[in-house]
Amino acid sequence: MPFVKGYKRSWISDDSYLRNQLLPIFGKKHLDEITKHDVIQFHHGMRAKDYALGTCNRCLILLRYAMNLAVRWEIPGITANPTKDVPLFEDLAGKKERFLTEEEAQKLYETVCRSENPMLKFIVPMLILTGARKREVLDAKWEDFDIVRKQWRIPVTKTGRPRHVPLSEGVLQLLDSIPHDECPWVFANPKTHKPFVSIFTGWNSARKRAGLAEVRIHDLRHSFASFLVNAGRSLYEVQKILGHTQIKTTQRYAHLSQDTLLDAANEVSKAVPLTLPCQRPSIR
Fold first, then answer.
1. Which pLDDT does position 223 carry in this prediction?
2. pTM score, whole prediction
3. Angstrom distance (rounded) from CA 262 to CA 157
4. What is the pLDDT of residue 265?
5. How far apart are CA 21 and CA 222, in angstroms?
6. CA 115 to CA 112: how far, in whole Å?
7. Are 11 and 1 in contact, with CB atoms under 8 Å apart?
């Protein structure tokens, strides 16, 4: 835990999983006494107690990481990770993603413009046009934006490291339309002049009026990625803009490019209009 606290913002969650789930089962065992069977029994035992799939997987991931550290640091008593090759539960519900069409995005924008929250008409377009996470947008400061270089520096991200987001012409126009006083935050609550704690009430009303009650705020990030991929941009470009540390996270959008690839393949037919030979009579 001292090591994790040094770099991980969500270490409190790890501490909770460790104290409440892992230590009661493994706390009195020596490292070389923990077997793969023990790990599997623990993982499936949590599921049998009706814990959510995500919770079961988080505990396994935490145990796996702790064991990897023990191997890496050559802690006496362990030479191999007993969690190796123990699969995570496949959380199909957690993989459910929703992508907005251009028409839906326009309809949503029209409803947020009529929202009682005066900043929602800036926040939602910013989410759609940058693919940034909700908290990254809500906590954005004017000093983070380099208008000349067309770049937004997000100081602290989900991974704990800064990243840079390119500012499109649409985003630059959006920023220029936001009232700018002495407040350091771009999307501050007009009443408190501080970042919003939550925008759910205004967001929920707007999405329902648009007929998009099932759309989540994080789906705007997915939609940004889908617009890029279907416009023919590479997964590498999407990965860099979204700030994914691993390409496998970005590969969830690979299937979206099928229409783009089909259009590309059809260009050959247009360029080389070959006349197909007449169909041969069937041989009996």
1. 92
2. 0.66
3. 36
4. 73
5. 32
6. 5
7. yes
